[in-house]
Amino acid sequence: MDVNQNVCRACDGTGLLMDDEQWKYSCSVCGGDGILQAGETPEPETTFEVDENNRTLE
Description:
Elements lengths: L15 E3 L5 E3 L32
Antiparallel strand pairs: 1-2
């Protein structure tokens, strides 16, 4: 299997997402590792809190 097939498409393998105000945060699809293995669910294990601007709270 090609390594590029396992790269998370949401964050392009960086493990980070960026919002429109240039805030960077851990990718909620791959869990921040940049890799999405076959059979791994992209849904987060737990729900996460967001602020009024829909930014994740850590």
